[in-house]
Amino acid sequence: MAKLEVILLAAAIFIFAFAGVFASMGYSGNEAIAHHYMTEGEWSDSSCGGCHFTVSDHVETNTHIQRDIDEWDPLTNFDIEVEGEDEWVERYGAYHPGGGALEEYGVDVDCMVCHEQYGMYDFEARAMKFAEGDFENANAAAMVDANTAVQKDNIRKFTYFSNAVTPLPLLLLFHDTVNGAPAKESCAENCHEANIPTTAVMWSAPDYEEFDVHAEVECAECHEISHSSLLVKADVENIHELEAETRSCDDADCHAGISHGPIADAHLETVECESCHIPALPGGELPGGTTLESFDWSNGERVDSFKTETIIPVLAWSNGVGEDELNIPDGKDDADVKLAPFNIVTGIWWDEGVNPEVAESPDTSKEIGDPIAVAYVEAADADQDGMVTVDEMRNYDGDADGEADYPNAVLRTVDLHYRLSHNIAGSEVGMADPLECADCHGSTATAIDWELIGYDSDPAQTDPPTDFTLKTIDATIPGAKPPEVEREPAF
Predict the structure, then answer these.
(1) Mind listing the pLDDT tens digit for each residue in 186-208?
(2) What is the SS3 assignment for 311?
(3) Is 197 exposed, middle or buried (0-12, 13-18, 19+ CB in 10 A)?
């Protein structure tokens, strides 16, 4: 009996201690509390910690939050040492969920950028606050409409009241309808809309399901991220390895066991599935952006040209893009490479030319090198005609010390290869049918440039030539219902 009393006492202590998390939760119309069931009257990663005991660890190990704002990218061509961190926050802070590098600007982690479930998160309002330099109010500006919706929701009102009068945390029953897992709309329409100009993805389109067989799959189902559970703390050694994990096509929960026949299956050792399943991409003006043909920084500001026609992806070798590398494919004989589909965007910018590899091969080197800040490029236009020449760039003396600042300057023109992994086509979805044998081999081949990827000619070439149009590729799915056979009625 004594043992039972101890157990009951321990259970009671736990319940009331846990219920303390939900103290002072009565519905009061307080916006900070109304958009999430918080206890501190404000939205922050620390107030999340009332329930999510490991949230601080999640913040410390989440690469969305701990992103390197010093990292240079040819698209933005932003030199943080020259233009300053404040300028970066004003221009690009809206694409950062807060915390990390933005903590010193008073921007706490805004979990709602991913977890708001009403579809009312106002990304543009948040971006405007960043542009105005009003960093501390940026997160709140995004939730004004969502807060109002929650305040009017009768189920949520009932939950607030119940949590105030009972030790049972009823919040657990309704939590995910207000603040559940990230939805693909949040990923696409808030932050990753920026991928449209380089990869022509259609995830911001209302008819996305017509372009991608995975349109109904939530992003987090494939892009597995570090997880902050209620009670369990996950040890994290390398945040980049953890956050970069993406399920492969043959994952046990995806397409494991599917066969396209022995010949096609043998290609999996050297060819990524996407190579055949992304046969075409849309060009022209797309929902959320227009696909780039090129961008040019040669005169101090970006000038763009766009792809107006259907885009045919380019197949090239790749084992991924390493740190401090440009998006340039690998060679056929490099380690662990596979053929993968890419969209090519030509980028043009000035480099100091002091890196030996860049100086020798400015247009084909993978090295990021030493890009010249656009402010200095613009200032180098000595005759103010809007065109910066090699002589002007190499003779530019910005510090007026009598010595040219960039005597070895080179103008790089680089075909940047942006890897494609969305807009997956199937037999009934996509802009075109997945590639078959004749698309890559034989006299009808148009999908691959064999010389470009390092071959003298088509390795499947035969004498006499094989008619690859007669070879088809079919999918065999384990455990699938066999096709029904139509029979004539017996009578």
Answers:
(1) 888 888 888 999 999 999 899 99
(2) strand
(3) buried
